[in-house]
Design goal:
Layout: H1 16-69, E1 85-87, E2 103-106, E3 113-114, E4 131-137, E5 143-144, E6 156-157, E7 169-173, E8 178-182, E9 185-188, E10 194-197, E11 227-240, E12 246-252, E13 258-262, E14 264-273, E15 283-285, H2 300-303, E16 306-316, E17 358-366
Parallel strand pairs: 1-8
Antiparallel strand pairs: 2-3, 2-4, 4-11, 5-11, 6-10, 7-8, 7-11, 9-10, 11-12, 12-13, 14-15, 14-16, 16-17
Length: about 375
């Protein structure tokens, strides 16, 4: 039997030219696939950052708009004045306790709140940004006066003490008047023995200057009229957050400021003033705007004509990984696009020339309680 022999023709390999062509085609295909992968990754990353930007902006607007709509909510009291709203706290006209002014504005971190004239800036507020203060009672409270007070200094008998703590600032309100005080003791001995005390003094500021309220409150005939609600003074402002990025902060009463949303770079606010008494804004002005014939926004009388607010925020991506350089300026409050009459100049943020993506979000809020 003849030994096995390979056919010489079947032993032939690739030539150098064929190998080079194959390698070249492989590299071309690999390069195309790599470019496609890099492009897809870049697109995904950019879209993810912008999605986070939009999500952060929606959260920021949600917080601010929700509280702005509640500005001046003092139960079912229609008018806010010293005859209808009484304060037993020490320093009743202090910034946190000034219930007679449900809305205040600070323009460009200049150091003066209007209309109170207070010069205490929010902690760490960034230059050139606006801030707003909203005072209101908790509209979700389900705590009511359950038994008539024998006198105006008596303890409050309530149906519930859920959520109430010592040192809370609370408001008792019916449709005729309201009183603001600090809780000094919460008594919870079961159903029928739920009480809130408001003695003079207090464990922490501001404390009560007196135990005597403006009147002795009693439950309403339907059991829903005389409410006990937490009262809060909330400041919204822009400062540097924990990540090093600008962020939206909120400060409640005398508590430490809390970072709410990262990546909010600027906030600009204009207030809609009604100059003809029809509850419709005729002009939008910055807090502290000077002017005559209805064009100012400094005094308490000026602010009594504010019926709405236009708020704009400039949000940016929290990382600067985009390759494009942002050379744009931004009309944050929308005033540049508004036709006359207006007394505030058109303000646009200067271009930052960095690699962040930015977007402006705006909202108009009409006040329900002012």
């Amino acid at each position: 039997m003849r030994p096995f022999q390979r056919n010489a023709k079947t032993n032939r390999g690739f030539s150098l030219v064929e190998l080079m062509v194959a390698l070249t085609l492989g590299l071309i295909i690999l390069s195309a696939v790599s470019m496609l992968f890099v492009s897809s990754k870049k697109t995904y990353t950019s879209q993810d950052r912008q999605a986070r930007l939009q999500e952060n902006s929606r959260f920021a607007m949600h917080f601010i708009v929700k509280d702005l709509r509640l500005a001046g909510y003092y139960g079912c009291v229609d008018e806010i004045n010293p005859d209808t709203v009484n304060v037993t706290l020490n320093n009743p006209t202090g910034f946190v306790n000034n219930v007679q002014i449900p809305l205040e504005g600070l323009n460009n971190a200049t150091g003066t709140w209007y209309p109170s004239g207070d010069t205490t800036l929010p902690p760490g507020i960034l230059p050139g940004t606006d801030a707003v203060t909203v005072r209101s009672a908790d509209a979700t409270s389900s705590i009511y006066i359950e038994a008539e007070m024998p006198n105006s200094s008596a303890v409050l008998d309530v149906n519930s003490v859920a959520g109430l703590s010592v040192d809370d600032i609370i408001m008792v309100s019916d449709c005729a008047s309201a009183d603001v005080m600090q809780v000094t003791q919460v008594i919870n001995q079961g159903t029928g023995t739920l009480k809130v005390q408001h003695n003079p003094g207090g464990a922490s500021p501001p404390g009560n200057s007196t135990q005597k309220l403006s009147k002795a409150y009693s439950p309403s005939t339907d059991g829903q009229g005389t409410r006990v609600m937490k009262f809060t003074t909330k400041q919204y402002f822009i400062a540097t957050g924990a990540s090093g990025n600008p962020a939206l902060f909120r400060k409640d009463n005398n508590a430490a400021a809390v970072e709410l949303v990262d990546g909010v770079e600027n906030m600009q606010i204009l207030y809609g003033k009604d100059t003809d008494g029809d509850k419709v804004p005729n002009i939008y002005l910055a807090a502290g705007a000077a002017g005559a014939a209805g064009l100012g926004l400094q005094s308490a009388a000026d602010w009594s004509s504010v019926v709405s607010v236009r708020i704009g925020i400039l949000a940016r991506t929290v990382s600067d990984k985009d390759t494009d350089v942002d050379t744009n300026s931004y009309d944050v409050d929308g005033n540049c696009a508004i036709a006359a009459p207006k007394t505030d100049p058109c303000y646009e943020t200067p271009a930052q020339n960095d690699h962040h993506k930015r977007r402006v979000f705006q909202a108009v809020v009409h006040f329900r309680n002012l």
